[in-house]
């Protein structure tokens, strides 16, 4: 841990710590209340989704970003604007598949896991699963249906945390209901 | 002068409606009015895109009649802000609606834990803040003022 | 303009309240509040661990309370407590006229009734912070009109 003084001069760091600790307390509570790691993972994903569908509006309102022209542009914006704005990190966009409908966000130094350790008996816990839900929820609001999954996890000894995003379909705008 | 404002979610539910200086009431029910407005802007939007001679970037933004102007602003998340004003209105109304989205809608609807996202907004705080926002706009105007300025002219 | 992490924190807090309230059911208000309070307690302890590493020692209880009302409050709730009162017998009343986690809640009567679940986590946060200074306390709060919140801290001596 860094030991520089005047920490209250860096509000972003304090805010980040409050977030990290709160997230940690949440996961601990869910683990305690749940039957299995899988149940926790699902709950985290669901919570993330609920956050994502609101967070996207904050994001769009502040960034004044318009519609993306393709998935590559979307991926870049998630990383360079989205993650940057809310977690102050810029994941690397990588691992595109051949058909260009699947990519990964590679996260090094994930603020959510800063103080976390995974106990041996919870090896199938996907600690950062909330991120899957956030990305999925946010993209759904801009008419992109995706599947998201953590495929590498620093807490499980991987070098990086990798969040895979797979494009499913574009959600068409609902035509007005009515008889005429 | 601002007449009224509609906010729709992306499935066409009218989340919020308010009128300030509307002088003539429509002869259909509120519900019907909301439906008609949504349907009309939906069709206009797709029609404008279809006939566009170049690749439409933003597409439909406004239309006017001899009496009023309708301004349309849609967020990438499909929220629609529709405002009608008089013809003398000055300034960028779509920017005004973006600011309203950012400073009022996000702050007091989206971030209100008790606000359900796809239902009409019931929060009094929201309508207070929105009213405050609209009434402090230089474009807001009111009937007396407008009448006065036209005499001065 | 607020910092991104603050927005995420507020949404996370909103979801935590949702999930805990959803799991325990609406009739179990006390359990909801106590669960949220415990989570806050844990976070409060962690914050102080990181926060006071380089701070000078505090000379007494009042000094600690002042630190909570100024530095800690500003860091966590983005402003200072508006008013601190004490009976000099271990009871402190902290008034925040615009409490961070209540500013987006609509100010109608019914909201005042559901407000307890939105402040329980914060009560725990304060209790956790105080416990790291060796002060054992009970922290309660009440909301009369949003977004104002009055916290009462009772220190066990």
UniProtKB/TrEMBL annotation, chain A:
Subcellular location: Endoplasmic reticulum; Golgi apparatus, cis-Golgi network
Statement: the UniProt record of this protein carries the keyword Metal-binding: no
Superkingdom of the source species: Eukaryota
Keywords carried by this UniProt record: Endoplasmic reticulum, ER-Golgi transport, Golgi apparatus, Lipoprotein, Palmitate, Transport
Entries under CDD domains matching the protein: TRAPPC3_bet3
Gene3D superfamilies, alphabetized: Trafficking protein particle complex subunit 3
GO cellular component terms attached to this protein's record: endoplasmic reticulum; Golgi apparatus; TRAPP complex
Main location: endoplasmic reticulum
GO biological process: Golgi vesicle transport
InterPro entries on file: Bet3, NO_sig/Golgi_transp_ligand-bd, TRAPP_component
Family affiliation: Belongs to the TRAPP small subunits family. BET3 subfamily.
PANTHER family: TRAFFICKING PROTEIN PARTICLE COMPLEX SUBUNIT 3 (PTHR13048)
Function as written in the Swiss-Prot or TrEMBL entry: May play a role in vesicular transport from endoplasmic reticulum to Golgi.
Subunit structure: Homodimer.
Name of the protein in question: Trafficking protein particle complex subunit
Species: Dimorphilus gyrociliatus
From TrEMBL, chain B:
Record keywords, A-Z: Endoplasmic reticulum, ER-Golgi transport, Golgi apparatus, Transport
Biological process annotations from GO: endoplasmic reticulum to Golgi vesicle-mediated transport
Subcellular location: Endoplasmic reticulum; Golgi apparatus, cis-Golgi network
GO cellular component entries: endoplasmic reticulum; Golgi apparatus; TRAPP complex
Main location: endoplasmic reticulum
Alphabetical list of SUPFAM superfamilies matching this protein: SNARE-like
InterPro entries tied to this protein: Longin-like_dom_sf, TRAPPC
PANTHER family: TRAFFICKING PROTEIN PARTICLE COMPLEX SUBUNIT, TRAFFICKING PROTEIN PARTICLE COMPLEX SUBUNIT 1
Summary of subunit composition and partner proteins: Part of the multisubunit transport protein particle (TRAPP) complex.
Protein family per UniProt: Belongs to the TRAPP small subunits family. BET5 subfamily.
Protein name per UniProt: Trafficking protein particle complex subunit
Organism expressing this protein natively: Dimorphilus gyrociliatus
Taxonomic path: Eukaryota, Metazoa, Spiralia, Lophotrochozoa, Annelida
From TrEMBL, chain C:
Domain of life: Eukaryota
Major localization listed first in the record, in broad terms: endoplasmic reticulum
One of the GO BP terms on file: nervous system development
Coiled coil: none
GO cellular component terms, semicolon-separated: cis-Golgi network; endoplasmic reticulum; trans-Golgi network; TRAPP complex
Subcellular location: Endoplasmic reticulum; Golgi apparatus, cis-Golgi network
Keyword terms, alphabetized: Endoplasmic reticulum, Golgi apparatus, Neurogenesis
Keyword Ribosomal protein part of the UniProt annotation: no
A family per Pfam: TRAPP
Similarity remark: Belongs to the TRAPP small subunits family. BET3 subfamily.
Function: Component of a transport protein particle (TRAPP) complex that may function in specific stages of inter-organelle traffic. Specifically involved in the early development of neural circuitry, likely by controlling the frequency and amplitude of intracellular calcium transients implicated in the regulation of neuron differentiation and survival.
Name this polypeptide is given: Trafficking protein particle complex subunit 6B
Origin species: Dimorphilus gyrociliatus
